[in-house]
């Protein structure tokens, strides 16, 4: 089930595909006979117009509601379906759901009524979830005088069979009961037990709706009494007792708008769909409540309100529940918890100022214990770290505030940065990391740029230019060129030191180190000693991605394992080389993997003390192969990006003092937010940036010292230029950085002309 500290709802648009129905339920105002001048079905243009209005308003769900099999009762429905090229309403529904999914990215939730196995199979590839209310199993409901008399599709056995078929087909499903239509409490429990039996067998019921009967004018039941609040609360409590914590329990908020905080106490944790653009066509007399009202109501019970998708997290993360045709749209719409993204921000996107998350509600005590342990310098458990990553509402605010306070106690109000230059010496790579749009191989010709392999004299020229512009560091990274040897990397280091003897060489990820060592038949320790002798000063902590082998098996299957990456870093620290540590997040991983990553870094740092800083790197999705293939999210949300910096500060204290934010990934406004959430370092000026740019980032290639210091001053903080190892920088270097001339155009030496980093004969 979704976290106990949350009340969820689904931002939806309501699409009434047809209001014709062969049933004659005595309480219903949705269905009606054909009317002169009205079409039986919404056209594709009608459907798309409604869906697009929902997408523009930030909805994630397209709720298709329709009558049961009107073509079996009304000639006009049959004729119109024929004109549309369909034999059944369900066939037309499948076409419209596919259209909405493909054209708008909204996730269809379908309520088609009683279905056959073939119907379920037809709709599964075009929907994120389906649903059908059981309503009730009392025999009296179908008898003469009962609300379902004359409604063949309300036969409980037929509806239970549909629910069973959905389970058999592994369809995430919603069901529930309608209370107050003539059933007894025992009969309600009997209906719920039937649903529970099917859920126990198939595990597909993601939520139960307890809907209270509303007497509607113009219906046969207009004078019937409505169930009381106490009756509704009793039913919700009974449902929670029956189902436990495995599923969500929902009540339509527009039918209980004045009472919903009390329903939370009874066991409710979901409000169903709420639409900012369409009315509730089933209950048009009851307007949707304002989201602020729901948020405040949740807060009054110590909960945070969170938007969800029509498919619940469990069914996203477990294999086999989502059709391959639907999964990419789900991933694009979700956050790391499997809930709906709470903003439209994404790392690297231009002109997208981040939006601060709402901070109302949330169970602060859930994170307060973890914060207390962290601030005292204790090692948190994985579960405690996961709680921090899941923080929303006021709990989110507490985590951020605690991290910022801890940052202040560690580094004061000083924000550091380095003047450096990135030199990506080749984009040729034999590895196939799913997130990488930088490297070039046989299968990546469609990605940005052409293959290049820098000549050593170009590396030297860029180094000399960087030194003249005040740089204290060059950062050297590239693809894993299949022709490179350990001597290639050594020659690159030697070239840099020859061009600028006093510059710090920050170079080569653990993957490059292991590759170089292997080509020379050397151990990692011996090869690192060789590079250190050549002038290597420290290692970047890249190639870490997520330190979890299950995630790495999808993300970068042919890359180093978790233990191998950690092993190289431990060895580097042992030979006297410091390094940074990184995480790349917002793609495939969940908070559990993020937590494990941070704790592995902490444990290594306690043994070696070799990490100078931790650098969160939000996944930039635009050109990444795993995103284009539809198997990754579109990066973290802004809340998640800020939380990564805050949680890292807490989890890594006191062993890693510096938390860096990447202005290339999050932009200047995002960097400012992270500096107020535990970060104390802005990284480097870079001068050139190729890797994030290749992935689609648009935040610039250079951040001058003057611009960096202006950003820092705007936060009321003090800027300090630092070296790679966080030492002070000479006045000469500082002045050189402030009088820098424009960069010359870089020369990208074509890869075909060079081998091993030197010109071919």
Largest sheet: 9 strands, parallel
The radius of gyration is: 30 Å
Q: What is the general shape?
A: elongated
Question: What is the end-to-end distance?
Answer: 65 Å
**What's the rounded overall pLDDT mean?**
90
CATH architecture of the largest domain: Alpha-Beta Barrel
Q: Find the CATH superfamily of the largest domain.
A: Aldolase class I
> Which CATH first-tier class of the largest domain would you pick?
Alpha Beta
**Tally of distinct domains:** 2
Which segments are poorly predicted (pLDDT under 50) over 5 or more consecutive residues?
Answer: 440-447, 690-699, 753-761
Protein described:
The chain contains 27 helices and 20 strands. The chain is of the alpha/beta class and 761 residues long. It folds into 2 domains: 6-333, Aldolase class I (TIM Barrel), CATH 3.20.20; 370-759, TIM Barrel. The radius of gyration is 30 Å and the shape is elongated. Mean pLDDT is 90; it is low at 440-447, 690-699 and 753-761.
């Amino acid at each position: 089930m979704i976290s106990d500290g949350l009340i969820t709802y689904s931002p939806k648009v309501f699409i009434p595909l047809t209001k014709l129905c062969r049933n004659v339920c005595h309480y219903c105002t949705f269905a009606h006979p054909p009317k002169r001048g009205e079409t039986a079905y919404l056209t594709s243009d009608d459907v798309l117009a409604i869906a697009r209005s929902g997408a523009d308003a930030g909805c994630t769900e397209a709720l298709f509601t329709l009558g049961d099999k009107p073509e079996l009762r009304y000639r006009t429905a049959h004729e119109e379906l024929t004109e549309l090229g369909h034999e059944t309403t369900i066939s037309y529904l499948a076409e419209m759901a596919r259209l909405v999914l493909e054209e708008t990215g909204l996730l269809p939730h379908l309520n088609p009524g009683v279905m056959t196995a073939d119907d379920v199979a037809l709709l599964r590839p075009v929907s994120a979830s389906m649903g059908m209310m059981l309503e009730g199993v009392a025999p009296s409901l179908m008898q003469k005088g009962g609300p379902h008399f004359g409604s063949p599709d309300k036969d409980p056995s037929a509806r239970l069979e549909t629910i069973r078929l959905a389970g058999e087909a592994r369809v995430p499903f919603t069901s529930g009961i309608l209370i107050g239509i003539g059933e007894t409490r025992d009969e309600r429990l009997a209906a719920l037990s039937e649903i529970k039996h099917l859920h126990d067998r198939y595990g597909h019921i993601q939520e139960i709706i307890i809907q209270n009967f509303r007497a509607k004018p113009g219906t046969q039941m207009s004078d019937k009494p409505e169930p009381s609040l106490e009756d509704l609360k009793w039913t919700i409590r009974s449902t929670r007792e029956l189902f436990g914590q495995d599923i969500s329990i929902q009540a339509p908020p527009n039918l209980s708008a004045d009472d919903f905080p009390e329903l939370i106490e009874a066991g409710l944790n979901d409000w169903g769909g709420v639409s900012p653009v369409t009315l509730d066509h089933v209950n048009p007399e009851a307007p949707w409540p304002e989201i602020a009202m729901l948020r405040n109501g949740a807060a009054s019970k110590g909960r945070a309100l969170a938007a969800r998708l029509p498919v619940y997290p469990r069914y996203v993360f477990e294999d086999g529940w989502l059709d391959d045709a639907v999964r990419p749209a789900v991933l694009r719409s979700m956050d790391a918890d499997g809930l709906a993204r709470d903003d439209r921000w994404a790392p690297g996107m231009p002109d997208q100022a981040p939006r601060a998350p709402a901070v109302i509600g949330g169970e602060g005590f859930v994170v307060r214990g973890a914060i207390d342990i962290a601030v005292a310098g204790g090692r948190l458990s994985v579960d405690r770290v996961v709680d921090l990553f899941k923080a929303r509402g006021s709990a989110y605010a507490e985590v951020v505030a605690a991290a910022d306070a801890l940052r202040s106690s560690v580094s004061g109000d000083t924000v550091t940065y380095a003047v450096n230059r990135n030199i990506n010496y080749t984009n040729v790579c034999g590895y196939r990391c799913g997130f990488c749009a930088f490297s070039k191989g046989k299968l990546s010709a469609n990605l940005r740029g052409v293959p290049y392999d820098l000549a050593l004299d170009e590396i030297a020229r860029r180094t000399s230019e960087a030194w003249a512009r005040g740089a204290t560091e060059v950062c050297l990274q590239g693809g894993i060129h299949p022709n490179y040897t350990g001597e290639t990397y050594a020659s690159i280091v030697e070239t840099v030191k020859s061009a600028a003897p006093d510059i710090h060489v920050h170079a080569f990820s653990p993957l490059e180190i292991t590759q170089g060592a292997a080509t020379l038949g050397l151990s990692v320790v011996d090869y690192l000693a060789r590079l250190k002798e050549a002038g290597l000063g420290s290692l970047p902590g890249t190639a870490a991605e997520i330190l979890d082998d299950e995630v790495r098996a999808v993300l970068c299957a042919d890359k180093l394992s978790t233990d191998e990456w950690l092993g190289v870093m431990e060895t580097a620290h042992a030979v006297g080389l410091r390094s940074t540590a990184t995480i790349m997040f917002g793609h495939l991983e969940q908070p559990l993997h993020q937590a494990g990553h941070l704790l592995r870094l902490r444990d290594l740092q306690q043994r070696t003390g070799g990490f100078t800083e931790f650098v969160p790197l939000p996944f930039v999705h635009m050109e990444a192969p795993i995103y284009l293939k539809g198997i990754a999210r579109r990066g973290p949300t802004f809340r998640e990006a800020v939380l990564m910096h805050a949680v890292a500060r807490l989890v890594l204290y006191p062993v890693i003092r510096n938390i860096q934010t990447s202005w290339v990934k999050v932009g200047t406004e995002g960097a400012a937010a992270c500096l107020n959430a535990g970060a104390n370092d802005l990284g480097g000026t870079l001068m050139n940036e190729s890797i994030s740019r290749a992935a689609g980032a648009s935040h610039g290639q250079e951040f001058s010292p003057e611009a960096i210091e202006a950003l820092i001053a705007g936060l009321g903080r003090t800027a300090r230029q630092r070296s790679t190892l966080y030492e002070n920088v000479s006045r000469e270097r500082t002045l050189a950085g402030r009088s820098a001339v424009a960069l010359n155009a870089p020369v990208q030496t074509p890869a075909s002309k060079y081998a091993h980093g030197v010109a071919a004969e």
